[in-house]
Fold:
Amino acid sequence: MENVGFIGLGIMGRPMARNLLKAGYPLVVYDLNPAPVAELVAAGAAAGTSCADVAARADVIITMLPNSPDVRQAVLGPGGVLEGAAPGAVVVDMSSIAPLASREIATVLAERDVAMLDAPVSGGEPKAIEGTLAIMVGGPEPVFERVKGILSHMGASVTRVGEIGSGNVAKLANQIIVGLNIAAVGEAMVLATKAGVDPAKVFQAIRGGLAGSTVLEAKMPLVLARNFKPGFRIELHVKDLANAVETAASLGVPSPLSAEVLRIMRVLQQSGHAREDHGGLVQYYEQLADVQVKAH
Ligand code: NAD
Structure:
């Protein structure tokens, strides 16, 4: 069994690392925040003292960090993975970052004979806990084959999409679809509520039809319960949609709907909702319509 390093023990990384421990992998972990490191050590992991230290003690180094600058810092910065990784090691970045950043980081690692995959995930905290994430991978096929077994303990599906950066392209597509769905649910349910109709009944009436979706099933009960505890924070979805709009612009692809939902999420981010779940987007419509979506 390969020695695995895990850097970034936040909402997602903590349960993902736990699942690797459960599967029996020798695990060394690190986070800037000591609390989740202590938690994982209590569960059987070894504590790393820096990203470089984790890399020196592992064959496969997984990162689960917020955005491109964080991954650059942890991998290429001072005390980073590159300083500790031995030739032949593999970095698997499971963060959702800009595809171009994945390619650039992989190029620098390759100069030291360290391979890299981008392997972002979908499914959120519940599926991270269950080990049933959807994992979308970019990078060389032989490297994918080497680490697929490790990834399978964190995901129900592990799909190689193409070369490095492709995993994050798939993730941008995922985030566009999820973000626009959340906005559609918010817009529709505020309309129903303002029209005097019970949104819980509307949910029951439409969930089995064409408007039914994973987003509707996951987020509508939380909206009705006024539960916006993250989950997936609005500030992270802002990051993903900004990456989507930027990538679309660089390719000459129109992205008007993503741009509008990004604008709505930024309004919420700047008005005290940044750390709420993205299901809280409904509050933008509620504030303007002066109504609250809840069961009658
Ligand atoms: P988080 O903010 O909860 O966790 C990030 C962790 O990284 C924190 O514990 C932070 O201390 C640590 N960190 C930051 N910089 C570091 C560094 N240089 N060295 C070591 N540790 C560092 O975020 P999260 O919700 O776990 O999300 C992580 C990634 O997964 C993001 O890219 C996010 O978009 C993606 N994602 C999240 C969800 C979700 O539902 N939360 C779902 C799918 C994908």
Remarks:
- The pocket of nicotinamide-adenine-dinucleotide is lined by residues 7-13, 30-33, 51, 64-66, 70, 73-74, 95-96, 121-122, 124-125, 231-232, 236 (CB under 6 Å).
